[in-house]
Here is the input.
Amino acid sequence: MTTTDALDAASADGPVLSLDGIGRTYISGEVEVAALADVHLEVGRGEYVSIVGPSGSGKSTLLNILGLLDRPTSGSYLFEGLEVATLDENDRTAVRGRRIGFVFQAFHLLSHRTVVENVTMSMLYTGVPPKERVERARAALDAVGLGHRADFTPTRLSGGERQRVAIARAVVADPAVLLADEPTGNLDSRTSEAILSLFDELRAAGLTIVMITHDASVAARADRSVRIRDGRLTTVEAS
Amino acid sequence: MNRTTFSTRDLLSEAVAGLASRPARTLLTVLGTVLGVAALVATVGIAQTAGNRIVGSFSELEATSVTVSNNTSFYGPATGLTPFPRDAESRLTRLNGVKSAGTMGPVDVDGALASTVTLDDPTGQNEFQMDVLAASPGLLDAVKGEIRMGRWFDIGHDERADDVVVLGPGAAERLGVYRVDQQPVVFLDDRPFVIIGVIQDVARQANLLNAIIMPEGTARAHYDYKSGDVMQIDVEIGAAQLIGKQAPIALNPDDPTVFRVRVPPAPDSLRNSVEGDVNSLFLILGGVSLLVGAIGIANVTLVSVLERVGEIGLRRAVGARRRHIAGQFLLESTAMGLVGGIIGATVGILVVVALAASRQWTPVLSMWIPFGAPILGGLTGLIAGVYPSLRAASLEPVDALRSGT
Here is the structure.
């Protein structure tokens, strides 16, 4: 399998994500709207990068493209050395399911299923045996401090606890990168601090993190912050 | 990169979990299919039970009896009567399917009174006006008669025109004949006849029970007897229809239409017509309820897809392919149909059994119904789920994640 070989060769020390001239144009009636234009971005292994910008700046579009949820209209996107901009849907789904962990602003937990079932969800489609799934899910919940809530349904958890369940779900499948979309957007400041500390711990453990936020103080927790405005990455500053 | 997979076991457990997480809604959705399948099963079951009941009332006795009458007028005395040939019995018994046959008819004794003793007894009557019948030797078997004592006359008595009679049990009672070993005599006016036997019972032609019965040859010799007016034929099971057609031709090849033939109704055509009547009406009803059930499942599955857009987006994000999403929703709707079919079949069978019990009938149900009904329900769910599942699979993950929570 050539794709697997290429991936193995590149994954050793090259950048995890490499965007070169990525653009995304929406067609609205007769008008073309460029949500992203000529984006260049590299994220190295173990890096913690924040993408900050006001609403409508194109940061969600960028995250969707980074997470292979959406397809760029131009440019090249190497994920662990593999060109994913032109992959077919099933292969993109495979990369997404196996190598990317998502944390959403709205948590996206299944309210009728238990916490541990929600966490095992991210291993459902990747061929992990059921028994191992539950063991790994419980270990991940212990790691985020929610081992005692494993058999609750998410409706009985606070917002901060729900986001920690979502983080456990994102990291349990051992992804190459964690993509977080406004992870503290629905949380109060004290709970946000706990979540951001959790990201710091994950960063220290060697996980690559890309976080989108509109909050400069949240963005400042990352190693590196990238500013996006009108679909263009305008400034790159080291913190 | 290896493509993502969704094992059958995981597919099943996810579908079950999806249904079990909303038990009330699942049950209400299933209800439509339950009603449809129950209506179908009850309809078919009741039709079969009733059909069996109707056929069951036609006994073997009835089904093996064919009578040929040469009296073509419905009421009154025989006019324009075509006599049976003298060898009618042997003509009929040559036909394949005939077990026995015999002719019989009334004998006009010109008002003669019957008595066993000529005795002037002021305290009791000893002379009676009684039916006198003539019969051919084969008649006893043809009416499935049994002899209580003595014997039935044979072809020898008939040909010699012996003065012998056999009494029906009612006639023997009135005449005070309790034994025949002393060769008692019955007088018709002044003519004596030796009583050679008394009948116990007959299954057909009940007028034999109260009659004095003599051989046809005897009746011809003394009473100007022309011919019997009815021929009783005992046939093999299933041969009645055929013999009914063949007998008149065998008896009178010139003009078979002079005879009136009475055969039992063909059981199959009867059952089919009953089942057909009941079925066509209620099958439509059952089909309509099943259709309503299918629309119900389709509707709820579609609503469920719209409600679970966020879940679909999440599943796509964690590696579910379009076919995995479609498969899950399709399995959920099929499972609902299957469960509805099982419950519906159970309810329908209970209805059939309860109805049969209340009428003391035997419930009858084809073997394929308890197995076919759940499959029908499952198919209903499967078809109902196709559109919603395709809808779910066609959602773009980015749209699904944005619009769902």
The longest strand of chain B covers residues 191-201. The radius of gyration of chain B is 38 Å. Chain B has a mean pLDDT of 85.
